[in-house]
Amino acid sequence: METKEIIFTKDHLVETASTNTYLQQLDTDRHLPEGHIVYTDTQRAGRGQRGNSWESEPGKNLTFSLLLRPEHIPANQQFLLSQAVSLAMTDLLGRYATGFSIKWPNDIYWEDKKIAGILIENVLSGTTFARSIVGIGLNINQATFVSDAPNPVSLFQITGHTYDIEAVLDQFVDAFRTRYQQTFTDSARALREEYAATLYRNDGEYPYCSEGKTFYASITGVEPDGHLILTTDTGEERRFAFKEVSFLL
Description:
Oligomer: single chain
Radius of gyration: 18 Å
Strand order of the largest sheet: 1-2-3-7-6-5-4
Largest sheet: 7 strands, mixed
């Protein structure tokens, strides 16, 4: 499959409610080119998976949204985009420290703590994508967290150093450009395999919860459509969609 070159462009906002919402409206009004990024110093109503809010101290972290038009990815394989974004983020963070992994489906962890969240909102047209907006919150320079989020961590807390936030954004763009190209080629299979190898708790049995019941299981794999396959300690193989199972930390 032929690849395409994306020219990434950026808009900087001092403050907005949600970069995903802002970019959606901007694209509706102007039909922006693929690769447009909106990032902000302060996001008042950042959204995470499961409807959670995202805590981010103003001016300390990277909160941004990226517009994509991945028409080449079939709708039933849209999880490939999530894998590319997640791996780009671990590629980026691997420049600064070790110990990063992807907690299925696309939270980024350092050891047992969450450093980044990813929210991808897709608009489909038949069997293909019309638009994807990738929203990312990455904890960079925040020293303390005050919300009731159970396990946040920042790059500053990990390394003891502060970072230029826009420079980190540029480094993510470089990492994502490489990963996105893999979704156009025969490298997609390798991308899926690398995602599986980078998963949080991909080795050993750990506690999970589904429908109010706790059980122990190991990760067997992730299907192309994003379903998580777990094998329980009793040998039963179980298949879960997003929100159907929780990791117990």
